[in-house]
Amino acid sequence: MVLRISGLIAAILLVILFAALPNTSQERRSEVPRGDVDQTLVVELDVPEGFDRAALAEVVREVDADPRGWSQIGIRVEVGESTTYRLGVATAATMAASCAPWPTAGRFGCQAGPVAMIYQPWWDEPPPWWEGSVDDYRRRAVNHEIGHMVGLRRHPPCPGPGGPLPVMALPPRDETQCEAQSWPVQADLDAASGLLDG
């Protein structure tokens, strides 16, 4: 009887002790403001022979450092080697193998698991619907694939004539009523934030 009472008292004391401890996981999350690092992707670059690897690395560094990019919600990107994630540029001849099992018609970029590929002819010369510079298109392409690597799967539609085209939107087949631009819009950021918070 004494042993049972002693055990009960010990159990009550443990409950009181744990209840008094701060919930450190919730406190840490609440102390992380927008812009602090929540997730860092280290990507290995995968480019065809003769392609300017340094040019792709420079665009990755640019979009990571720009305050208009994914860093707004704590997502950072670094170039490394032998990592889980691969960001690359593929030719029409190699796109199908790089993107399997997803059909790309030999000319659309893709994300297959930890691999994301950009279509090289559009890297060299943007598609007809793009009205900006080559450099801005390359920033859009990299931002789009970073969004996929974070876990975004859906492609939001154009919000309406004159609105900014979400960076996660599918490339229009010809022209778009939206303003094509290079950076994640609020809908993109909210969707990615939901994955980080989850």
Main traits of this protein?
198 residues; alpha/beta; 7 helices; 14% strand; globular; disordered N terminus
Euclidean distance between termini CA atoms: 47 Å
| Helix content bin | 40-55%
By helix and strand content, what is the structural category? alpha/beta
- pLDDT < 50 stretches: 1-35
Strand fraction equals 5-15%
Strand order of the largest sheet: 2-1-3-5-4
Cα-atom Rg, whole angstroms? 23 Å
Described by strand count, sense and barrel closure, the largest sheet is: 5 strands, mixed
What does this structure look like?
The chain has 198 residues and is α/β, with parallel strands linked by helices. Helix content is 41%, strand content 14%. It has seven helices and five strands. It has helices at 2-20, 24-30, 53-65, 92-99, 120-124, 134-150, 186-197, and strands spanning 39-46, 75-80, 85-90, 110-112, 115-119. A five-stranded mixed β-sheet has the order 2-1-3-5-4. β1, α3 (53-65) and β2 (75-80) form a beta-alpha-beta unit. α3 crosses α6 (134-150). It is globular and about 40 Å long. The model is unreliable at 1-35 (pLDDT under 50).
